[in-house]
């Protein structure tokens, strides 16, 4: 054995280590060179056969080779076995800047996403989710909710009535049929069917004869919620709605609760959040008010309880309703509600 | 409504600026949208809720101002002039009411010898500051009283009324009235009028007639203060398409107390600005109702509002709002409601009064402990799961209108029932409820293709609506899918192209059905190119509709095939709700796969091959898979080549070649015996 042999062994080994394309092949190489019956072991085994004057120098060389190879294996492992190494099976010249290979991505409509986000917050607070029909009776949509017929409070609830085949209004066992103008009729439905305690949220489509423009649509989406039990009070209303608003708009949002009027709640509330654009200074989005109206709410009116057969002396509760589309528009800075229903795939894929 | 800051100050001492007042009123339930300076005054634009008829005037808002500021509301001395003694018919004038239900109160005050001219500067400016045009001194005064007290007044030129009296009655069919806006109205008995001996002179509570209008030559005046049935006024103004300041207030309710004060205020101003003398007042109508009394429980309010409510603060708040408060016991206040607060009927209404003046912001938020109903899987969750699966398959969720134009129903899908029309659509686009979601998706396809989008996969989960014999208004949730265009994609080595078609929809549905655990679904097609029915067992779920290029062109889709589908969702949800997954032992013994290559006539469906092979295979045949399909050079036209993989496995032992060979030969024989099928 000569000195040159050892250098050649080291060179070959280092090339092979650099060329290893998997940890298995690296393992194999380590065995080949440093294993019990490996090349280095073979060289060490050859030492006693050498002339006495060469043994020490040769032994040193072999030891240096062993250390160099150990270091080479170690370095190869730590630098990542695949880095810079041709992956087995790939074509030569594979270009990682080529497009990735994936299934085509679809999308879930923004309205669904926002409705789910809002619903999810209430579900975490213990509410359950129910859905109701869009074709409703006049009783559920109005009278049951303490909204008298032919009353100005009906003006805000302009409603699509359904036409009977012979003319006039389509009727059911429960009065005239219409397209619900809010999700509140589900209060009547759920309370008529069940007994407290109740904590329910209802997402769904609603309809009002509004001319379509950037901020109006004849079809839109609401989310109704109500909680009925013994000893529910106004503080609970504020607690739940505050948790919701912070969940949707962030912890640093400011809130205000203003008195308002809804026929089916007393006291009634409108909840505003500080404008998400100007933070309350006043801007075109908030009409320079600094506040954005987010929802209507209130303690459920005793007359509603009477209408569904609950004893208002025994139970109390609160209800709230909000526009899901409105929250979507505000949250994502969309300036035209029509975009939600145009279904331009480039819009849909943004969310 | 617009409010003048200075005008409010006539009734209450306000020591804060207009912006601060706006803030306080907003937080008491009258949202002030803007405060604008105007000639030394400030104009507050406030939204008045429909229950607060009493706040559609300066005095009403001044009373609210007094309450939020903790001040007293006061009527300045010399503001009013008492009505003259109710005169007799012998005084030469009579009032008759057809129905006290239609007109619960009518007062007619006769003022003789007035001088009509322009209004003084202050009067004109005040009216104009809140957006009311000045006409002449007398008309302006009636408007001034309206805006100050909220009870609309009307002045007739007494000499233009024939027959020495007025009659409040329903209009006769076909009677006409030219109103002061110059419009000729044809009346019906649904409209209440003030008529002289011959003709209608005014539409009650809506608008006066041009013939009896107070004008430059007017000398003698009939000043009307009245209450008209709100429902009647509402109907009337809808029929006449004439919303006025008067009708707006009558609809929301006017009370006898404010009618009297409005008339007295107008009289005061007329006598001092127009001269003349009030000679006679005739009053007719129902008995003035008594004020409502409510026993108000302080502890009840404390419980509902979660506040401490000392008796003194409660009665302070209520008195400042004009309620008369007496003490009945340590817990009960005896509250008398003024007639102008018709909205206050019970405990809850007083609780709101307390809360809004006390301040909603002073009530602490508390998280309730909710006893939640752990109802398991809900339809909402399930549908959301489906949407996620579909999005993962490259489908984009759309939300299209449920109301459509009639033309959208002209679509070659199966109709679930008769369409339901809307009685009062605003436009053609909203005239009927859709019986299928597919036309909506089809329009989305056309729209997006027009936007040069090439690869379209859409879905929507929404309701369809129809009438049939069993119900007037059926509503059913469906899943609709649509695909159109070409997908060009990179497979890692090269580019591939696929035309989106029925199998893409089938694939999405199969995946959903598998997820839902829907058993034995099938896709049935009468012949190639025809629409496909989708079944679960014997239950029809829906259909897949293929619009060829010619049909698609009718829907503005050029040179492309469009494929749509609609599936009733209920059976799928039902399957998902009853899905109970069970563990099956993993296979203990290896499977052996053998392929069969076949040449068969093009029209023979794969299903037929699988059925024959399945029957011949017996218990060891665990699975049949299509592993290749080919047409082209080696295959004669009218034929196709298929490779079917048969997977054999036993649950008891490792199968041997000797066991499988006869079974596989049986399958091969059975297949090659079929007409039109041969081995390759």
Blueprint of the fold:
The complex is a heterodimer of chains A (351) and B (680).
Chain A: H1 3-19, H2 23-34, H3 39-46, H4 52-78, H5 110-124, E1 128-129, E2 135-137, H6 138-141, E3 162-163, E4 171-172, E5 175-179, H7 185-193, E6 198-207, E7 219-229, H8 234-249, E8 255-262, E9 265-274, E10 291-300, H9 302-307, E11 316-323, H10 324-332, H11 339-342, H12 345-348
Helix pairs in contact in A: 1-4, 2-4, 5-8, 5-10
Chain B: E1 2-4, H1 5-9, H2 18-27, E2 31-38, E3 41-47, H3 58-69, E4 94-97, E5 105-112, H4 121-129, H5 137-149, E6 153-157, E7 165-170, E8 176-178, E9 184-186, E10 192-195, E11 200-203, E12 207-208, E13 221-227, H6 230-240, H7 245-252, H8 256-273, E14 277-285, E15 292-297, H9 298-305, H10 311-320, E16 324-327, E17 332-337, H11 347-358, H12 379-392, E18 396-397, E19 403-404, E20 421-422, E21 432-433, H13 438-450, E22 455-466, E23 474-490, E24 495-499, H14 502-516, E25 521-525, E26 532-536, E27 539-547, H15 549-553, E28 562-568, H16 569-577, E29 592-601, H17 606-617, E30 621-630, E31 639-648, H18 657-673, E32 677-679
Parallel strand pairs in B: 4-7, 18-22
Antiparallel strand pairs in B: 1-3, 2-3, 5-13, 5-14, 6-13, 7-10, 8-9, 10-11, 11-12, 15-17, 16-17, 19-21, 22-23, 23-24, 23-28, 25-26, 26-27, 27-28, 29-31, 29-32, 30-31
Helix pairs in contact in B: 4-5, 5-8, 6-7, 9-11, 14-16, 17-18
């Amino acid at each position: 054995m000569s000195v040159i042999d050892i250098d050649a062994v080291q060179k070959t080994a280092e090339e092979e280590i650099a060329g290893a394309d998997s940890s298995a092949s690296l393992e194999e190489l380590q065995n080949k060179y440093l294993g019990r019956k490996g090349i280095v072991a073979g060289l060490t085994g050859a030492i006693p056969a050498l002339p006495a004057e060469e043994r020490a120098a040769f032994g040193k060389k072999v030891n240096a080779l062993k250390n160099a190879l150990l270091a080479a294996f170690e370095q190869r492992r730590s630098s990542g076995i695949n880095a810079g190494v041709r992956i087995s099976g790939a074509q030569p010249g594979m270009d990682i800047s080529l497009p990735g290979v994936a299934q085509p991505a679809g999308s879930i409509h923004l309205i669904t996403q926002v409705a789910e986000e809002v619903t999810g917050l209430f579900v975490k607070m213990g509410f359950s989710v129910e859905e109701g029909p869009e074709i409703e009776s006049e009783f559920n949509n109005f009278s049951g909710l303490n909204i008298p017929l032919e009353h100005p409070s009906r003006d805000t609830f302009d409603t699509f009535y359904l036409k009977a085949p012979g003319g006039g209004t389509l009727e059911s066992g429960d009065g005239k049929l219409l397209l619900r103008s809010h999700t509140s009729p589900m209060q009547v439905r759920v309370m008529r069917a069940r007994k407290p305690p109740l904590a329910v949220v209802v997402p769904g489509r609603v309809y009002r004869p509004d001319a379509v423009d950037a901020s109006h649509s004849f079809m839109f989406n609401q989310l109704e919620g109500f909680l009925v039990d013994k000893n529910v009070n106004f503080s609970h209303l504020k607690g739940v709605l505050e948790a919701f608003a912070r969940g949707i708009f962030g912890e640093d949002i400011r809130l205000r609760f203003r008195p308002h009027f809804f026929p089916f709640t007393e006291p009634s509330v409108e909840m505003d959040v500080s404008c998400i654009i100007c933070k309350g200074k006043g801007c075109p989005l908030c009409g320079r008010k600094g506040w954005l109206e987010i929802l209507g709410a209130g303690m459920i009116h005793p007359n509603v309880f009477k209408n569904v057969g609950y004893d208002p002396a025994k139970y109390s509760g609160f209800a709230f309703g909000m526009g899901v589309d409105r929250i979507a528009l505000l949250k994502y800075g969309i300036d035209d509600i029509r975009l939600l229903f145009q279904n331009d795939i480039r819009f849909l894929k943004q969310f | 409504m617009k409010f003048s800051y200075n005008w409010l100050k006539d009734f209450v001492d306000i020591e804060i600026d207009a912006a601060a007042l706006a803030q306080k009123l907003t937080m008491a339930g009258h949202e002030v949208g803007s405060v604008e300076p105007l000639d030394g005054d400030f104009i507050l634009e406030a939204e008045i809720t429909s229950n607060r008829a009493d706040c559609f005037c300066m005095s009403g808002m001044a009373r609210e101002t007094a309450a939020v500021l903790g001040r007293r509301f006061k009527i300045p001395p010399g503001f009013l002039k008492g009505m003259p003694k109710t005169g007799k018919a012998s005084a030469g004038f009579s009032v008759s009411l057809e129905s006290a239900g239609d007109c619960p109160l009518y007062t007619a005050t006769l003022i003789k010898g007035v001088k009509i001219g322009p209004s003084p500067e202050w009067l004109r400016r005040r009216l104009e500051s809140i957006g009311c045009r000045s006409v002449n001194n007398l008309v302006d005064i009636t408007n001034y009283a309206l805006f100050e007290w909220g009870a609309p007044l009307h002045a007739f030129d007494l000499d233009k009324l024939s027959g020495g009296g007025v009659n409040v009655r329903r209009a006769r069919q076909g009677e006409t009235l030219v109103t002061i806006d110059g419009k000729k109205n044809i009346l019906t008995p649904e409209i209440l009028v003030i008529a002289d001996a011959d003709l209608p002179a005014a539409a009650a509570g809506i608008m006066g007639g041009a013939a009896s209008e107070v004008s430059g030559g007017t000398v003698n005046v009939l000043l009307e203060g009245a209450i008209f049935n709100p429902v009647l006024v509402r109907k009337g103004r809808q029929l006449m398409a004439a919303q006025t300041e008067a009708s707006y207030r009558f609809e929301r309710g006017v009370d006898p107390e404010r009618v009297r004060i409005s008339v007295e205020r107008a009289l005061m101003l007329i006598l001092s600005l127009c001269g003349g003398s009030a000679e006679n007042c005739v009053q007719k109508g129902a008995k003035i109702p008594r004020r409502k009394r409510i026993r108000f429980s302080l502890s009840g309010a404390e419980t509902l509002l979660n506040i401490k409510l000392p008796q003194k603060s409660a009665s302070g708040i209520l008195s400042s709002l004009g309620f008369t408060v007496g003490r009945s016991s340590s817990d009960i206040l005896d509250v008398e409601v003024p007639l102008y607060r018709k909205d206050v009927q019970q405990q809850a209404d007083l609780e709101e009064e307390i809360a809004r003046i006390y301040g909603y912001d002073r009530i602490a938020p508390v998280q309730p402990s909710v006893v939640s109903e752990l109802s398991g899987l809900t339809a909402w969750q399930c549908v959301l799961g489906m949407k996620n699966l579909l999005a993962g398959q490259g489908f984009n969720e759309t939300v299209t209108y449920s109301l459509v134009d009639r033309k959208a129903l002209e679509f070659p899908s199966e109709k679930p029932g008769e369409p339901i029309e809307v009685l009062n659509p605003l436009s053609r686009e909203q005239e009927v409820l859709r019986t299928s979601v597919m036309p909506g998706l089809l329009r989305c396809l056309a729209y997006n293709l027009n936007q040069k989008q090439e690869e379209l996969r859409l879905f929507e989960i929404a309701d369809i609506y129809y009438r049939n014999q069993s119900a007037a208004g059926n509503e059913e949730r469906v899943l609709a899918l649509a695909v159109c265009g070409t997908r060009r994609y990179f497979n890692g080595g090269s580019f591939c192209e696929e035309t989106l078609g029925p199998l893409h929809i089938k694939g999405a549905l199969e995946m959903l059905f598998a997820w839902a655990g829907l058993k034995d679904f099938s896709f049935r097609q009468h012949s190639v190119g025809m629409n496909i029915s989708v079944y679960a067992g014997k239950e029809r779920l829906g259909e897949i509709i293929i619009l060829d290029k010619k049909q698609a062109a009718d829907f503005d889709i050029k040179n492309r095939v469009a494929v749509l589908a609609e599936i009733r969702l209920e059976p799928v949800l039902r399957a998902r709700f009853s899905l109970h997954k069970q563990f099956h032992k993993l296979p203990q013994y290896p499977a052996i796969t053998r392929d069969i290559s076949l040449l068969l006539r093009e029209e023979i469906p794969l299903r037929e091959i699988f059925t024959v092979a399945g029957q011949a295979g017996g218990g060891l045949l665990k699975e049949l898979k299509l592993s290749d399909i080919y047409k082209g050079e080696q295959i004669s036209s009218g034929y196709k080549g298929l490779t079917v993989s048969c997977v054999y496995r036993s649950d008891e032992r490792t199968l041997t070649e000797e066991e499988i060979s006869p079974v596989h030969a049986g399958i091969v024989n059975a297949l090659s015996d079929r007409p039109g099928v041969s081995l390759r």
